[in-house]
Amino acid sequence: MEHLNSVTLRGYVGNVRIMDVQDRKVANFSVATNFAFKNSNGEAVIETTWHNVTAWSGCKSADITAIKKGIAVEVEGRIRANRYTASDGESRVIYEVLARDVKIIDVQLACENYQ
User: Fold this and answer.
1) Are the CB atoms for 75 and 98 separated by under 8 Å?
2) Cβ neighbours of residue 47 under 8 Å, at least 6 residues apart?
3) Which of 31, 7, 26 is nearest to 79 (CA)?
């Protein structure tokens, strides 16, 4: 059996932090995705999930310095779990997407494709 760790996200960028690491840049940013459904009462509900993303310059991506809060992006990559022990002694896990491709989406064009 072949194992696969692959994820594609489309959403809006939240917080962005771009840093220099040696001779490369790395962008750590969050992406919000929405899932719409109707609850048991028939009311529309939108569930938002925030994803942590790390993208290195040089990966098959848009210029990572162009990633700004509020823009629409499509991120392709893999999920990695980071385990650590918090200051209170509890073991915690943070999941992040290690991007191999980041595209800035033209929102108007994307909306037209779904109509």
Assistant:
1) no
2) 34, 35, 36, 37
3) 7
